[in-house]
């Protein structure tokens, strides 16, 4: 019995990940109640992003400028390049503030099942960036999944003839992880990669 | 390291009920990835609602027209009036499609603790609607909380001299409720209001 406009807004919100029909309705009610405090800022922010949205032609990051803020930042260490599957992974790693270098977004992972082949990913542009020189270390930060690791393997072979150090993220216990809740694969990795106590 | 525009959008989404910083980031990434399929519809829907948002001057519902769609609907049974605390409650009851009448939104509940007095709620306009005539039944659909029931009690006294039937929602076991998980208050209500098996 809500108006078609309100229904459309509820549906648009309900399609966001993490929101269902119920929480979308609650969100809409919140927006309707707080027109100045919530609706207006959201609308302005959405307009601003929609107007300026761009994919970085260097690294594949999504930002409001091309090159993106990371590629344009001269304080970044251009000698380190971190390769990730998706933009979300880039953001997650960047939030740690522990990686001083730049990124490269593949746009997915190799998958026989889903028919994703090397030419479907931003691999040629990655190889071109490495071939261009100036890079000392390439961090393969794929997901710890079968497909992620297959992709990392493939990339490692593709770039092994370049004079760069190729590394990957450590696998092991997640912080706060309790042994008896972890899967055997993680435990096996943690055991294999065990280190002397400092 | 995301642009200020993207940060602002993430923050605006994170303030919605049901979304936190983490899920807001995931939602933003989804919007950035699906510009045509998700971002554009959400932006259009938000603009449409923001442009036309109105509070119904009759019942207090929030809609894109005044009178709202419910008050304007001539198929609704004007002899039945359901009083609710908030717009969210109106929507929830209307979704059941079981109430054929119209609504009245109080805009809250009486609360000594929060200093909400009768004059802070849309009670005078409720009494005026009933005094205007044509209403046979008033359903007091307050929340089953102490404050909700206090409000219902107060309203019942305010309107008892009108020739209307005053009812309230049944209290008892929620559908799917298991006895040993329910609080004693609910069980006591369910027991007191027990009915002969049909």
Question: What is the CATH top level name of the largest domain in chain A?
Answer: Alpha Beta
Tell me the β content of chain A.
5-15%
Number of strands of chain A: 6
Average pLDDT for all residues of chain A: 90
Keywords (chains A, B): DNA damage, DNA recombination, DNA repair, Metal-binding, Zinc, Zinc-finger
Protein name (chains A, B): Recombination protein RecR
Zinc finger (C4-type) (chains A, B): 56-71
Family (chains A, B): Belongs to the RecR family.
Characterise the protein shown here:
Two copies of one chain form a homodimer. The first copy, chain A, is built from eight helices and six strands; from the N terminus they run αααββαβαβαβαβα. Chain A has 198 residues and is of the alpha/beta class. The first copy, chain A, folds into two domains: 4-52, Helicase, Ruva Protein, domain 3; 76-168, Dna Topoisomerase Vi A Subunit, Chain: A, domain 2 (3-Layer(aba) Sandwich), CATH 3.40.1360.10. In chain A, strands 4-3-5-6 form a four-stranded parallel sheet. In chain A, α7 (146-158) links the parallel β5 and β6 (165-168). Chains A and B meet through α1, α2, α3, β2 and α5 of A and α1, α2, α3, β2 and α5 of B. Chains A, B: Residues 79-174 form the Toprim domain. Chains A, B: Keywords: DNA damage, DNA recombination, DNA repair, Metal-binding, Zinc, Zinc-finger.
